[in-house]
């Protein structure tokens, strides 16, 4: 024990000691090492050393060489085949952030499945670690113990280390533990647990966190053919691993041997060989990705399958310097992009080709790239070398003509972030309004290039709006998609401008037809090598044309020719597709080509319209003074009114289209004519308006010119009266037939009216029947139903004729013949599924089919059985469900059976049926006797009908009356017997009676009675008398019963 001795000294009540804070004893310095694979190798490298490396968006070094971050180390490999490994990276690590708090009650557990790992690194931290003494106020250190456990292949967890954070820190302190991983088949489970309980006190700072876990594979790798940048940073300058970005010059690729990529110049002629150098020329980037075996199509495409000469021309066009919009110059096209994910070859190649406004396609076992750039026409087409001499033109839709483009590009001045360049076409907006499109300029890092992309899109959509298609023979073999062709179409040009060569001798060519040509004009010819050449005409002698220079090849007879002059040029098109058609013919589709747009895109020059026709301009003025009039004439005894539409001609019009309408109805096309008037015969009275359009030689229509509203009377006399109207009785209906009067008619329809009474004022319209229909059947009536009918005609002018008949209507009645009705109903019933089922014979049950032992008994000669079957049928257009139960008893050749059947049928055609039948049957002496009842409803051909059918020799209704039975209704042998009946309304075709009397008959007083003896007594009501008739005598009595009249034999 230590003795503490104090000495008194000063005054009592003095102050205590001052609280102290111990200095931090925990300090951590962590370094983050990151190895970035930045590109497929080999690359040119960093553009400007450390200034081209950015951490969190800030360059590592400034232009004066000073560093913005300390303790940063960088190493770089360009991605060559034999490059060395970067020092300081003895392993491959994949770090994953965790960022969770570790507590004593909640360990942290992670499963690791990658069995190739060598170790894991666990990083722990304490944001602060200290303890405050509540009595003295001193702040000192604190201790937090923890442990790390490991389980292999799902086994028990074993402790790998146990340690502690012990000391004091007021800032974040991190610690990393590497845990070696033994061999495993399925993986490991790692657990970190806190041993020291959490203080949960405001005076103790002891929060512990799991910051991250890193999977480690021990290997020192060179990564051949992969460009690498290794960076080590001090953790004191960053809260997390910083984001990195690099400004690089990319792949070293093959370029022409006479090409200097730095100055973008070409020396002499190219011999077709290559050298390797860095280049962002999109043509050679395209060539590289097509042929590279690691990331391109090199395994499938060889160098001789790529048209490098076409790419050489495209590459030169890309390298031409154009204004950049800021007073300087820049290459027309560059390609600066990263391909960061795998994709199908075709869209990747199309994206790369889009940089030079081109496309790529496969043809004749070659990869071909073409660009939209200035080019000479390769071939001439004229009706003379086109099937049927026919060119078909089509224009683009108005909505496809864009006037504003929003072009996305990557701005190198803003860390290559995406920007949007707004481009607009003022002339297009004035004509079509604002029609916007949004595009992404692939690989574009220049604002000027983005502006040119937008201008190209807008000018192309406005200037190149027409397509042409035509069919040719083997001439199609000389053109490919992307080729420029010339079309000499005399129908569009307005005069003869080409044909076939009749003969040639040196510079002199004899053509096959007269043509308007002068000295100084240009003669175009297709030569035997499949190219088109042009020469200046120096002499004209009829059809003999002499040119000023030799042709590169001798001109052959039948070669296609054309001539150009100052006021007429051939049309230029770019081939879009060549499609094989029937036989040896091919169909060529091409898009309008305007070469003046390129200078307008690059330099803002004015676009010149190419004179391709001497016909009138595309805007056709309308006609004037459209007027309407009418006249009448007698044609075969009928007055016909004709409307005349005339107008004043329009300049340059070759035809007119005429339309008219009556009373604001639909417009009716009257036709196309070359004159200045047109007639419409047989008009009706009404208010008319006409409109006329002028048509130019280019088939361009003008705006319509309208006439004033004009009232024309047309025909006013009514049509004649119907000749006849006949009503014929049919079962449950009435058939109407009518006849038209003889002679010419302008009848439009027949009106039929019907009513229950002969008064037409109470009738209603049955229908309108278009001429020349002359019959109609009215169905669905009750038997013996009566109607009255009238008919009248209405002509095409709307005039209504007189009624037929003019008075009482024609009487029609549905059939009241019982025999006809019963025959009809028999036929209709026989068509139904219910009748078929009810009248079919019950099939006999064979003993083996009788079911289980509990349902069948007998020895095969005498037996009884019950069979119940259920079946469903489902086909593509039909479904049937059925259940049948049959009971049968058989002795020798005689049998008795009872069957209950239920069936439901549905068909896709709309036919539906549901039925339920009960049948009884006996079979003896070779005859079958059947009785049954069926209930069903069917829908066939849109008619739904329900019915109850009974099949029996005798059908009776029985009425039990005490100990006796009364039969009020019996059907026996086809006859109906009724004991007593009350009928409100009845129709009898033929009847046989015994005695018949009224229901109020009292002999000698009221009512009437007719007996079968021939006596007829008729008694009056009230004060009236009575009359009695026999076959020989008539007697009349007064009210007092006194005989007043006797007539006959007595």
Walkthrough of the structure:
It is a single chain. The protein is mostly beta strands and 1050 residues long. It folds into eight domains: 31-244, no CATH class; 252-371, no CATH class; 397-463, Phage tail proteins - 2 layer sandwich fold (2-Layer Sandwich); 466-603, no CATH class; 624-712, Immunoglobulin-like, CATH 2.60.40; 724-816, Immunoglobulins (Immunoglobulin-like, Sandwich), CATH 2.60.40; 820-968, no CATH class; 992-1048. It is built from nine helices and 72 strands. The chain has a seven-stranded antiparallel beta sheet, with helices on one face. The chain has a six-stranded mixed beta sheet with strand order 27-33-40-41-32-28, with no helix packed on it. Helix 1 packs antiparallel against helix 2. Residues 1-17 have a biased composition (Gly residues). Residues 341-501 form the Tip attachment protein J domain. Residues 92-219 form the Tip attachment protein J HDII-ins2 domain.
Using brief descriptors, characterize the structure shown:
1050 residues, single chain, Phage tail proteins - 2 layer sandwich fold, disordered N terminus, Putative bacteriophage protein, mainly beta, FN3_sf, six-stranded mixed sheet, seven-stranded antiparallel sheet, flat, 9 helices, J_dom, GpJ_CSF
Can you summarize this structure?
By secondary structure, the protein is mainly beta. Helices cover 8% and strands 45% of the residues.
Helix and strand layout, with pairings?
Blueprint (H helix, E strand, L loop, with lengths): L30 E10 L2 E4 L6 E3 L2 E2 L13 E5 L13 E12 L5 E5 L6 E8 L3 E3 L6 E2 L1 E11 L5 E10 L5 E8 L7 E7 L9 E2 L2 E11 L7 E9 L9 E3 L1 E9 L2 E2 L4 E2 L7 E5 L3 H10 L16 H12 L1 E3 L5 E3 L13 H11 L2 E6 L2 E6 L7 E3 L10 E4 L8 E8 L5 E8 L1 H7 L3 E5 L6 H17 L2 E7 L11 E4 L2 H4 L4 E8 L2 E4 L10 E5 L5 E10 L2 E4 L12 E5 L6 E10 L5 E7 L3 H8 L20 E12 L2 E11 L6 E8 L5 E6 L3 E4 L5 E10 L9 E2 L3 E3 L11 E7 L2 E7 L7 E9 L8 E7 L4 E5 L6 E10 L14 E4 L4 H13 L2 H7 L16 E3 L3 E13 L3 E14 L2 E14 L4 E13 L2 E14 L2 E9 L2 E8 L2 E9 L2 E4 L17 E2 L9 E4 L5 E4 L6 E4 L3 E5 ...
Parallel strand pairs: 27-33, 29-31
Antiparallel strand pairs: 1-17, 2-19, 3-4, 3-18, 5-17, 6-16, 7-14, 8-13, 8-16, 9-10, 9-15, 11-12, 11-14, 19-22, 20-21, 23-24, 25-26, 28-32, 29-30, 32-41, 33-40, 34-35, 34-39, 35-38, 36-37, 36-39, 37-38, 40-41, 42-43, 43-46, 44-45, 44-47, 47-48, 47-49, 50-51, 51-54, 52-53, 52-55, 55-56, 57-58, ...
Helix pairs in contact: 1-2, 1-3, 5-7
